[in-house]
Amino acid sequence: MRVTVSVQPTRSLLGDPRIRWGGGLVAAVWLIGLVGGLIGLSEWPALVLDVLGGLGVAFTLGRTLGWAAIGVTTTNLRSATIWGAGIGLGLMFLDWVNTFFYYRGGGEPMAAMEVILVGMGLLYLFPVLVLAEELLWRGVLLIALREAGWNLHLTVGLTTLLYALNHLFVAPVPLFERWLMVGMALPIGVIGGYLVLRTRNVWAAVLVHGLSIVAMIADIFIIPGLARG
User: Fold this and answer.
1) What Å distances lie between residue 227 and 96, 97, 158, CA to CA?
2) Blockwise average pLDDT, block size 10, the chain, 229 residues
3) Second label for 70, Cα 20 to 30 Å away, from 80, 124, 130, 201?
4) Element containing residue 113 per DSSP (H, E)
5) Over the range 7-42, which residues count as b (16 or more CB within 10 Å of their CB) and which as e?
6) Per-residue model confidence (pLDDT) at position 3
7) Is 29 in contact with 50 (CB distance < 8 Å)?
8) pTM of the entire structure?
9) Please, are residues 228 and 101 in contact by the beta-carbon 8 Å criterion?
10) CA–CA distance from 186 to each of 19, 48, 190 (Å)?
């Protein structure tokens, strides 16, 4: 696997537009999600801002700073694809095994998420969500922190923690299901973060995340029947 990490601590954190725009978006999403939950609007406004804002920030920064500055590049694309797909498939299998025994032991289903995916017809929008989240968290923020000179492990750990907690503010489902999503987000953030920093290519994380979403869909629609059959 080719390693091409480039660390260039040439600007302060707040002097980097990736931190200003990416961090500002996260703060706005969390504030709107918190207020929405308190006044009964639910987390839908925060989720919409999270997705559209993530895409908008990534597109703006990609146009102004260059797409490589947020990891959208053909550099190491083959390596990123192989590692992202391989690890993503491995996580998918482990998730299915874990979910099978979760339901076999009487675990509660993600009923609210099923309503969103099927009842509201939002299943096919998940690729957009994956792209928006990865461009923001692993493309914009992760790379910016690393290039500011932050320790590699601290960078991955912090972005993973914040990314996981982000689900508490944007997921319009009961708290129980949000915490399940936080747990699912942790390996995605850690593995995707290290892959992006090693390959300098955000598509590795997009593949890991995308395959994890495929696994989650099977968790909802297929695994419960197998476990209880």
Assistant:
1) 10, 10, 36
2) 45 86 97 86 90 98 97 96 97 93 87 84 90 98 96 98 96 90 95 97 97 91 86
3) 124
4) helix 111-114
5) eeeeeeeeebbbbebbbebbeebbebbeebbeeeee
6) 43
7) yes
8) 0.90
9) no
10) 21, 22, 6
